[in-house]
Amino acid sequence: MVEEISITILNRSSLTPREFVNQFPITKEYHGAKYGAKDYFYSIKMMKALTQDKPLGHDILNLLYKYPNFHITEFAIKLKTNICRLKRFDGEEGMIGKWPEKTTYVPLKL
To answer: By residue range, what is the domain housing residue 37?
Structure first.
């Protein structure tokens, strides 16, 4: 599983921003400014900021979490889930276990 994810990221990182957008079209949602969400216009601005003819390289990792496309979002969630599983397998605390320490989480008492 880890090898498959690594190979997939490596393959996608060799794409240019134009090729990436052609393979994974941006979801056509236009209400981002109203709700403070990433939408079509945000994504276009983000992609235009990248050099269009240069491979994405390490920018692919940031793009995975900011790019509004169902398949990319699904892949990013699976990636985070598997990283968390690997950390727990190595005896470390997973991402969810660390979350209460980083926030002002107060459990509710009924």
So the answer is: 2-102
